[in-house]
Amino acid sequence: MDDDYNRNVESLRENEYPMLQDAIYLDHAGTTLYSKSLMERFMTDMTSNLYGNPHSASPSSQLSTRRIEDIRLGVLRFFKADPKYFDVVFVANATAGIKLVAEAFRELDEGFSYIYHRDAHTSLVGVRESAVANRCLDDKGVEEWLSCDDRPPDTTTTLFAYPAQSNLDGRRLPLSWIKRSRDLRSQGTPTTYTLLDASAFVSTAQLDLGDISAAPDFTVLSFYKIFGFPDLGALIVKKDSGRILQKRKYFGGGTVDVVLSVKEQWHVLKDHSLHESLEDGTLAFHSIIALGAAIDIHKKLFESMDRIAKHTAFLSQRLYDGLKSLRHANSEPVCVLHSRGFDSKNTRDMQGPIVAFNVRNCQGAWVSNTEIEKLASVRKFHIRSGGLCNPGGVAASLNLEPWEMRQNFSAGFRCGVESDIYAGKITGILRASVGAMSTIQDVDAFVSFVDEFYTEKKTSRPILDSSSTSQTPDDLFVESLTIYPIKSCGGFSIAPDIHWEVRPEGLRWDREWCLVHQGTGQALNQKRHPRMALIRPSIDFDRGVLRVKYQGDPPADVPDEISIPLSSNPAFCKVEGDKFLSSRVCGDKILAQTYTDEINYFFSRVLELPCALARFPAGGSSPRHAKAHMQKRRSPSNDITRTDNLPGTYQPPTPPDSDNETQKRPILLSNESPILLINRASLNSLNDTIAKTGGKQASASVFRANIVLSSSSQNDEQPYSEDHWASIQIDQQKFQMLGSCRRCHMICIDQETAQKDEEPFITLAKTRRFESKIFFGSHMCHLAQRNGTKGSQYPTIKVGDIVKVDAAKE
Ligand SMILES: *Cc1c(COP(=O)(O)O)cnc(C)c1O
To answer: How much is the pTM?
Structure first.
């Protein structure tokens, strides 16, 4: 335990890592953080010296060359490598270093056979595609391969690759394998080379290449993982193994001495030093100069990697013990830990400061990682989840068989998608990792967070009495109607006396437009761009336009307001070039009409990002069919994770009778369903709960509903009765309820100010979470009637309309 260090770090934090502010950063295995001193040193260096493109005679070029040579030596010293035996090849990142090795081995006459460890990062796995044969081994497999005396000799050159530390769970693999695999050479088999991926290891441990006989032939790493900056990698090559790298075919500027192209084709590789023949093109010389500063400053701030190793081991042990100790009231563990513990003595050689885990509820069901990440991000924790580019590690930790992975893939599972539980198995892990500037407070806060939201503290659940909440008040009316003409932008309230048209795809003019990124064509959303809330559209039927204002501080050169014709006549749209823009909304490809540069300029300036307004062709003739993203849930009994904090008893919502999930509906931009409804009584109940903690009460607007219902007698409120409705009637119009609306932390954005808060997401997470998803409000769609009445030809609803619940679900 290193209290001194921790105290030092605490005082260091404020000065050196001001960007942390109130963030709790636990993704050091993704990248650690750069210090302010490093950035200042780099800036001073850059602004007080004239650095030119290296390898030329000018003084500025010479200066760059000299600095690079010094820093190359500095890198070797950092890893205790003797420049007599080692060389450093600067590459973009660890992956580029691995690729360089693979490119060379592929050119061997007989090809090469590749052996890699199960815990390998994806970048290491990919090498197998260049090999004539490959094997993926676990520890036992490696041991067998290394110790088997009577095995048939390998007939080709072998490349043996493994990570010094798994990026997934932080496990450190035996470095002794390097020497042992080299010893195989002396047994008369063709040469075995070793490729060590030290990327994860070096960030919190001293890589020591001092013993030449135990050092890998090739070592790759990325410097941002040690210093936070610059984004640069290295391939450290043992010189006497380096020749093989020159087998690669490609050469670029910088790696050749002479090239003939006209009449004859001939070239000579530079061979003065190894790195010269491998560093294609202009070196990342500014980054290398930054690396020089990074090495110096790191030493000043932290003294040695060994100190960092001690400190981070202490912290991750605390984190491990903390998570491990969490128990549900029925004494089942909250966390399933995939990383090794620190209970034996020499654990520091076996485990890096990473804790990989999953969360289960008290009945042993998995809690979705993506949902935990959302809640964590509201609480300003920075962690990582998913497969973490470690296919073998994740499959082993979670017992996922290849056929299951394939089946999950068919079922829609991808890197980066939301759903992560298939057939009762979770597909990814959560990873919290600490670094040199982490503190005790960081890890304690994280353990408390997991405890606060995921430990179920009561064994006895309230007995569910469905009669109390499924009772429906009989005095409901439409309190307000709101449309969102531009997806994710501000709402437009419909005035009380206006009869507003209802269409199969939703309320008229709701999500008629959207903003798309000019580069990617992706629809923008408020979750990523909170300022979109300040874009306020209103519909002006007199002038036949959508008027759009920006409610923040608009840049001086944009008009206060712009107008967009309501008419979809193409004459009003952009004419030159493509009139249609290919865009994606929720993964569905759609074609949209675009507008003039003036209009796009307005949006691009106020949001400070290059975007364009887009509109979808009317009629739904094009492939404008998106799946309604409704939530299916299983029987109520296994749904409940929380019931204790809700006033009264609570019956979880049951899914709609029909399987709406696969039904295609002609709607698009409203993401989920044609119409979203919330109940004032539920909001009041939620706000009562928030009030108890002193949190910020939620305004109805954060839920971005189309319809807010309210009951006229305030004293007979029935919160969440909407969960039980099957269909409702608003004045003359019938609507089918499609299920509860799943929520993300977008509801934390104040629609007036675009500022974020933790509420109401935090309280909802405690009171309305089912199978780790959070629900508030209901989806619904209009049911067309064909009875020849005026109301069936032109269905409308208005504020003040009486609402009747036609049918309640069981
Ligand atoms: C980060 C990491 C990589 C990939 O590094 P890049 O900088 O993305 O090339 C590879 N292996 C391990 C073990 C890592 O931690």
So the answer is: 0.83
